[in-house]
Amino acid sequence: MTIKAAYFNLGGVAEGTPLTMGTHINPAINHGRNVRGIPWPPQGQGHNVRAWAELIVAERAALGVAYAPDVARLVQFSGQRIGMLWSETLRYRRNVAYEYEMTQVREAAEWLLSNSAIL
Amino acid sequence: MPRKKIGLQSALPIASASFAEALAAELGAGREYGQPIVYEHEYASGKVRVVVVWDEWADDPLEDRSAVILKAYEIAEGDPARERIALASGLTVPEATTAGMLPYQIITALRKGDPVTYEQARQAFLDQGASKLGNPRGLQLRFATQEEAHACRQRLIKQFPGSDDVWLVRRDIITQEFGEE
Questions:
Q1: What's the complex ipTM?
Q2: A92, A103, A110, B153: least CB-packed within 10 angstroms?
Q3: Is pLDDT of A111 > 50?
Q4: B32: helix, strand or coil
Q5: Rounded distance, CA B37 to CA B91, Å?
Q6: Contact check, Cβ <8 Å, B83/A69
Q7: Any residues with CB less than 8 A from the CB of B25 and at least 6 apart, and which?
Q8: A residues 1..40 contacting B (CB < 8 A)
Q9: Would strands B85-91 and B48-53 be described as parallel, antiparallel, or unpaired?
Q10: Is the pLDDT of residue B175 over 70?
């Protein structure tokens, strides 16, 4: 949600505005997929952390307010790490993650949260 | 007591030098077809979004692929080229297909008497950049645009004169096209 909030904030959506699938989420996904060239599989598309992270990096670059290169890479990197190890479908399964997997996701999520002010 | 400052860079993966050099060589070669396929999407701001579709990525995590792509541009074209890249992604053909990036495909309709054999068609597919990953039944020769697919078909027809009816271009039907916005 931190990345999504940053993306919609960039687009001028006021804080506190309820985000709906039809008005916000799906149009953003289609924009990412069709305009910004983000690889965005349809399966679980709203939960694809990697794709949302890449969308905000691409969107800022396209609008002329790009992140500093290292920040852009870390946003993408965090999204890639979380995207590789987490899926919303895990909610519905018995799953025991390896400790190193937990550490990788925790560190990536921690970086995004602690840097949310600059996203 | 040693005091060490940890910068942003330290959290990021380091690109495999040999992999980056191999991709840099491909960038410099400027081949007309075959893998890797490099898609560069330039935004109005001048920044570029790069996607490299390459089955060689299969054993590498996404974050390592991004690092390799940036390093490869640096080797092939220098620091300014690397700095223009806002976002770099590496995908295998099956991953790019799942993501909806390669909706066009060439398939064969081989019949007795055609001027191309199954083995020749298979080798031609591989030469054109077909993927052996993901589909145990056969090769996947895929493209992002209709123009790329038709250009490939023309190359195949040129290679095997009279084979026009062998090579068919088809487009995936994407489920979200039928979904609600």
A1: 0.82
A2: A92
A3: yes
A4: coil
A5: 10
A6: yes
A7: B76
A8: 22, 26-27, 30, 33, 36-37, 39-40
A9: parallel
A10: no
Query: So what's the pLDDT on residue B164?
Result: 93
Domain ranges of chain A: 2-118
Q: CA A74 to CA B97: how far, in whole Å?
A: 26
Query: Would you say the C-alpha torsion A106, A112, A113, A115 has a positive or negative sign?
Result: positive
Whether the pTM exceeds 0.90: the reply is no
Q: Give contacts of A64 with chain B, Cβ < 8 Å.
A: 44-45
Sheet strand arrangement including B85-91? B37-42, B48-53, B85-91
Cβ-based contacts under 8 A for chains A and B: 92
Record the tokens describing residue B86, joined without a space.
Answer: 């806002």
Nearest to B87 among A26, A43, A58 (CB): A58
Chain B: nearest CA to A50, how far in angstroms? 10
- B25-56 residue pLDDT tens: 999 998 889 999 999 999 999 999 999 999 99
Nearest by CB to B86, from A30, A72, A77: name it. Answer: A72
Examine the pLDDT at B177 and tell me if it is beyond 70: no
Q: What is the mean pLDDT of residues B75-85?
A: 92
B49/A36 Cβ within 8 A: yes
Under 8 Å CB-to-CB from A13, ≥6 apart: which residues? Answer: A19, A24
Give the pLDDT confidence score for residue B180 in this predicted structure.
44
pLDDT tens sequence across B123-137: 999 999 999 997 767
Classify A34 as helix, strand or coil: helix
**Partner-chain residue, chosen from B66, B86, B96, that has the shortest CB–CB distance to A66:** B86
Residues A89-99, buried b or exposed e (16+ Cβ, 10 A)?
eeeeeeeeeee
Helix (H) or strand (E) holding A71: helix A69-85
